[in-house]
Amino acid sequence: MRGVVFDGRRVEVVDDLVVREPGPGEVLVAVAAAGLCHSDLSVVDGTIPFPVPVVLGHEGAGVVAAVGPGVTHVAPGDHVALSTLASCGTCAECDRGRPTMCRRAIGRPARPFTRGAEPVYQFAANSAFAERTVVKAVQAVRVPEDIPLTSAALIGCAVLTGVGAVLNRARVDRGDSVVVLGTGGIGLNVLQGARLAGALRIVAVDANPAKEEAARRFGATDFLTSADGVRELLPTGADHVFECVGRVELIRRAVDLLDRRGQAVLLGVPPATAEASFPVSALYLDKSILGCRYGSARPQRDIALYAELYRRGRLLLDELVTAVHPVEDFEKARADAEAGRVARAVLTF
Ligand SMILES: [Zn+2]
Ligand SMILES: [Zn+2]
């Protein structure tokens, strides 16, 4: 079958990939569509260290092809969106509603694929850039069949991360002020999360003025091409500033823009060794800096919720898809993403 493989030097669309059958508690999914997220490219450029060879992709949706023993919540033919969170479901963190903190789900990459005799790693417990992939049952979340799979695909990373950061981590409240630095796939979802939460002032900042229209459609009440103008709109600062780019100078900027009791939420991913600095006094008056893993999501609940909000017209998914390419054209999608031309390029199988 076809898939997008990174061997440590280059990315290749191959057609000799094999995936094993689902074991107990696993689901085999025929992937229909998968979004290209910056994290996939971060594996290729080394920002996210990952063993190779690896099948890329971690934001997909498709149709259940087979289920292993013990799986009862989905059946062959069901449409599912995939999460990247292979949480165990039985540890204390899972049990307290924090599956993103499950230690058994982090740092143990599996190798369910082979090419010839060589095992191939699965990226983010997911590898959605393959015609078929095997995931844990907890990762396959049933979605209604009237949602286009090219749109449902994006729920599993961009939407869970962006909307989840707003609702689950920052817990933005009605009337709050929100600043979003960077309006790519994650930033747009932070914007619509802030709108869902009832934020009053939602300021989008992106150096590219061409992003204004999309930012406003997703919920921005104001758009700026530089954070310099934020203080004119919010003289006392913001309740929440989301850094969605992954640059240390913008992280510092986020801290500087906080109002009393404000919080900076870090969603961008700078290189693993990057350090940021700020004056300690900048955190006086109850300010805080928050990390956020995967939108602090509970995927079985959140993916179903976002799918339903989409059906009711309250959450935008179709508008996130700005280019669709067959998987063979991975390089076109990559060029689109690297040029910042698209919110999301989606690959189809
Ligand atoms: Zn992602
Ligand atoms: Zn667990």
From TrEMBL:
<dbReference type="InterPro" id="IPR013149">
    <property type="entry name" value="ADH-like_C"/>
</dbReference>
<comment type="similarity">
    <text>Belongs to the zinc-containing alcohol dehydrogenase family.</text>
</comment>
<dbReference type="Pfam" id="PF00107">
    <property type="entry name" value="ADH_zinc_N"/>
</dbReference>
<keyword id="KW-0479">Metal-binding</keyword>
<dbReference type="GO" id="GO:0046294">
    <property type="term" value="P:formaldehyde catabolic process"/>
</dbReference>
<keyword id="KW-0560">Oxidoreductase</keyword>
<protein>
    <submittedName>
        <fullName>Alcohol dehydrogenase</fullName>
    </submittedName>
</protein>
<feature type="domain" description="Enoyl reductase (ER)">
    <location>
        <begin position="12"/>
        <end position="347"/>
    </location>
</feature>
<dbReference type="InterPro" id="IPR036291">
    <property type="entry name" value="NAD(P)-bd_dom_sf"/>
</dbReference>
<dbReference type="InterPro" id="IPR020843">
    <property type="entry name" value="ER"/>
</dbReference>
<dbReference type="InterPro" id="IPR011032">
    <property type="entry name" value="GroES-like_sf"/>
</dbReference>
<dbReference type="GO" id="GO:0008270">
    <property type="term" value="F:zinc ion binding"/>
</dbReference>
<keyword id="KW-0862">Zinc</keyword>
<dbReference type="GO" id="GO:0005829">
    <property type="term" value="C:cytosol"/>
</dbReference>
<dbReference type="InterPro" id="IPR013154">
    <property type="entry name" value="ADH-like_N"/>
</dbReference>
<dbReference type="InterPro" id="IPR002328">
    <property type="entry name" value="ADH_Zn_CS"/>
</dbReference>
<dbReference type="Pfam" id="PF08240">
    <property type="entry name" value="ADH_N"/>
</dbReference>
<keyword id="KW-0520">NAD</keyword>
<dbReference type="GO" id="GO:0051903">
    <property type="term" value="F:S-(hydroxymethyl)glutathione dehydrogenase [NAD(P)+] activity"/>
</dbReference>
